[in-house]
Write the structure tokens for this entry.
Amino acid sequence: MSLKQEMPEQKPKERIGNFGEVALGYTEQQAVIEAGRCLECNNPLCVTGCPVNIDIPGFVSQIKNKDFDRAVGILKDSNALPAICGRVCPQEEQCEKFCVLGKKGEPLAIGRLERFCADYERDEGIKSPEKPEPTGKNVAVIGAGPAGLTAAAELAKAGHGVTIYEALHEPGGVLTYGIPEFRLPKDIVKQEVDYIRNLGVDIKVDYVIGRIKTLDELRDEFDAVFVGTGAGLPRFMGIEGENLNGVYSANEFLTRVNLMKAYRFPDYDTPIKCGSKVVVVGAGNVAMDAARSALRLGAEEVTVVYRRSETEMSARIEEVEHAKEEGVIFNLLTNPVRILEGENKTVNGVECVEMKLGGPDESGRRRPVPIEGSEHVIDADIVIVAIGTSPNPVIFAGSEELETTSKGTIVVDEDTMSSLEGLCAGGDVVTGAATVISAMGAGKQAAATISRYLGDQS
Amino acid sequence: MSYNILETRNLVPDVNLMKVEAPDIAKAAKAGQFVILRIDESGERIPLTIADFDVDEGSITVIYQVMGKTTKQLTTLKIGDTLQDFVGPLGTPSDIRKLGTVVMVGGGVGVAPVYPQARAYRGAGNHVISIIGARNEEMLILEDEMAEVSDELYVATDDGSKGHHGFVTDIVKDILDSDQQVDRIVIIGPPIMMKVGAGVTAPYGVETLVSLNPIMIDGTGMCGGCRVSVGGETKFACVDGPEFDASGVDFDLMMSRLSLYRPQEKEALESYNKKCGGDCKCH
Ligand SMILES: Cc1cc2nc3c(=O)[nH]c(=O)nc-3n(C[C@H](O)[C@H](O)[C@H](O)COP(=O)(O)OP(=O)(O)OC[C@H]3O[C@@H](n4cnc5c(N)ncnc54)[C@H](O)[C@@H]3O)c2cc1C
Ligand SMILES: Cc1cc2nc3c(=O)[nH]c(=O)nc-3n(C[C@H](O)[C@H](O)[C@H](O)COP(=O)(O)OP(=O)(O)OC[C@H]3O[C@@H](n4cnc5c(N)ncnc54)[C@H](O)[C@@H]3O)c2cc1C
Ligand code: SF4
Ligand code: SF4
Ligand code: FES
């Protein structure tokens, strides 16, 4: 049975004392050995699992030949942000899930090899892309997350003038404000953003569309518009005590840590209250990131509370493993019913009820039902709510004509075109919270659709 | 991005005015909205109400009270200096239309956000009665400006050094007790003043609006840090507000949430003062 090369990592005890990256990346020798395991299938199933159809056997065989420049070239043909995808793609659900090696042993470590190439390129110095012939058309891209950045890169490569409008003071979307440094160093995001700037894309930060300008005004000003504003509106549970001091949405907690660098307070001005006993509600990537950040901020005890069982947790397996190694406690089949109030409206514990799994619900997963009389209190002074997000409606202010669903997502056709002419949308604002690579896939599709639309116009 | 400071002026002790070049924000700004600014890379994002805007000049004016680290650091900036970030206009604009008689109440630095609203209500054809207050005469801001945009102007000071000796809310009560028909009251000031004001007007059943100022980060509805409880419902002040009907606001909750970071705020100010005596722009 063939096993993949182990990823060098910071030891758990050490890493919970810092925000440095946990997974350290393959050495050149490891990358070449790992690449050697690939069968270079004629009909590579792995590619069917990649939302942007990277030529996986192609770039892997270049690693085998130690021609890393060519490997990078092949990756970049399909993916503008390989250093990011190599780190945060749920590979085990995508490309690696389909790899034939997985039938008899472990699948090829495609994500790790992708990361290796991107890191190699960064060490060598990223080459500035060639500037294409301008088409004279101008496109506005709203939101500088993976969807917007990818769309902008593709549109610029096609020769269109591109302006990105971003609400926050840094581009990157969730990559900047959500995913922590220890999983995705911000220098990497900056570098990828710089690459996109070098393509000639103008990034205007501090621009909240819907407030400073409406979508309709942008449609008048530009030849086409792409909306990639993500799903940034946090959901709360609607239980008693949820507005108490010390109850955070995961978005607020992570934004304070990542975007505002509260972990470096007082060198950075933004404070955060971490407490000694932290309860995180939810079991996705967001919950894992919040729990692991809390540990690094010095919390004594961090407990993840989730109403279903381990099989239903949506976080990447690797992240759950990392969280466990670091000492995060998992209280599964447990649901908060009330947050208890302490002095001066602070948190003083979370009352929970135990759950059991009943028949399947609309999502096909088994429905959790409360067990009567199982109420108990978990000690806590901080609660972080990570039960999901939906699209932020600010973008629609003043432009009610755009067709949306009852969940607040934008309705688009298979080419990403919305109900308004010349306006495409993609990423989390269309699908609801999903993945980096699917947002990028949508951005790429939208760029193709917009180029075609602009071609038809002239 | 980077935003030029066009003017800075000290109005009264610890209250300063700052005018910033931001043409796109000036074009879109409406009374009742605010901006969020960040001085530099390591700075905090802080919200300040738009006290005035000038489309021709492309400028936004804010008036701030020195509270802690960030507002103290702001006082060190001069004409020609820049702010790293200036985001706006944020929040839902005030619902300004012709109602009849509107009473505008501003306390302390709260007079600053009242000013553009009073002007807009007057512009919409209302009879505007303004009541402004401060600790003492020396701390009173924008008296001339308020006089210009009000049909009637009353002043109250805590120590009686000018106008009525007592609180602005005393004058509100007098007006409500008189025969004067009042169609709306807008109260903006420190949370405790808004809470007391809401208590005074409640028995009269006159619509009373307050502008809430919880701690904010993004100002776009993304973090939920600014949530307040209004009529038993959770609202995000930065997008659903900042203006709300006073009758349902849980002021105690808001005030306790405002105190969450007191120890850190103290630490930040102390570390800032130590680094530079508080008078330079380092850090
Ligand atoms: C904590 C966390 C961890 C995650 N971990 C993973 C992971 O490990 N792997 C994975 O694949 N996915 C992960 N995800 C999901 C993934 O990050 C998202 O699916 C992806 O970022 C969506 O990309 P997007 O471009 O559609 O939106 P976003 O990344 O949300 O970007 C949208 C951008 O638009 C801006 N914007 C919003 N409204 C406006 C407006 N009105 N005007 C101007 N700008 C606006 C926002 O500020 C933001 O910068 C995670 C998500 C979170 C929150
Ligand atoms: C919508 C809105 C409009 C406002 N308009 C004005 C205005 O026109 N003029 C004015 O003087 N003040 C205004 N404020 C309050 C102003 O934002 C705070 O005084 C300022 O953030 C204090 O920062 P600091 O670092 O100097 O003080 P700190 O020492 O950090 O804090 C002092 C106090 O200010 C409050 N505060 C701290 N951080 C924030 C934050 N990020 N957001 C909101 N409040 C905070 C807290 O109650 C804190 O105890 C407004 C607040 C809001 C929410
Ligand atoms: S982009 Fe993601 S899915 Fe595609 S090959 Fe890379 S890791 Fe796999
Ligand atoms: S399926 Fe696996 S072995 Fe085959 S080409 Fe893809 S990565 Fe290589
Ligand atoms: S300030 Fe973040 S949601 Fe209002």
About this structure: The radius of gyration of chain A is 23 Å. Chain A touches chain B at residues 167-169, 204-208, 211-213, 232-234, 236, 242-243, 245-246, 248-249, 251-252, 255-256, 260-261, 265-271, 273, 344-345, 392-394 (CB under 8 Å). The first strand of chain A starts at residue 138 and ends at 142.
